[in-house]
# Entry
Amino acid sequence: MSDAAQPTAAEVRAAAEAVKAALDRHLDAVERRSGDDDPVVFEAFNALAAAAEVYDELLYDRHDEVTPFEIPGADDSLPPYAGPEEPHALSVLIRRDYAVVEPPRLLAQAQRLADLDPDERGSEAAAVAGTSVHAALGVIFGEYEADEIASRHKEFGLEEGDSTLWVAAAGELPEPGEWLGAPFEQADPQLVVCRFDVSSVFDEDELDEDLEDLTADSS
# Structure
């Protein structure tokens, strides 16, 4: 980079101050968090990641120096936000994967529900609820909200896989029924304000890092 294009020392200092302020906001959000998926914490995390990235770039451009900071997923989890500055509507997109690991438990729970109110589901559906995994899943997911199934999945013989939640911004609320035919077709990563991912691969990465640290300490 030419000298003329280099950031000034004042710009680098201002970026450093922005990182400090973002650190304070992130810590405050963590201390006041309302739960594991608190959006305020996630937004503070993203703001800190962005401030650290700006500081890192300016520091390198001005002083040919780097920082030891690395924000997991900050660069490749989402593209740059390109939605409205002041969203007037939002869409919450959720995907949760499950494996059916205990079919007998699933079938028993579905049959119990069908027996409690056979008229609601029809006599034929009630009769097969406890014999067909397909029918049992329909009964379970028709009876309980998705969040309740997530918290009670083991009761239904299910095992959690990966999950993600996207909060996407929009200029206005779609017309009723507009997207029901293809609810996820217009999921645009550039409109995502924040997202929350859960995956065992994150735990495996942490385990690998711990093993590498132990190996380094013992060598």
